[in-house]
Design a protein that fits this description.
Blueprint (H helix, E strand, L loop, with lengths): L23 H10 L8 H7 L7 H14 L5 H4 L3
């Protein structure tokens, strides 16, 4: 059975499947997991859909890794996560 990306409960253990969709539900999850500065870009969306097995927790961690290295997310905001 396919995951409902529009209305399903997304957790850090939710597997990104072939039917992954970039929905408001996904953006709410990542906003909560990452930071108020969370934004999707084409490179990151391509990484999510690259066919490698990953969970939504790994997706959030990858966004944090990319944006922390780039200095996009302040350390003070990371402390709450």
């Amino acid at each position: 059975m396919d995951f409902d990306w529009h209305g399903g409960i997304i957790t850090r253990h939710t597997v990104v499947d072939a039917n992954y969709r970039n929905t408001q539900n996904v953006r709410r999850f990542l906003f909560d997991q990452c930071s108020p500065e969370f934004k999707l870009d084409r490179d990151f969306m391509a990484w999510i859909r690259n066919g490698d097995t990953k969970t939504m927790g790994e997706v959030a961690d990858e966004w944090m890794r990319r944006h922390n290295q780039a200095g996009d997310v302040s350390i003070n905001k990371l402390n709450k996560y």
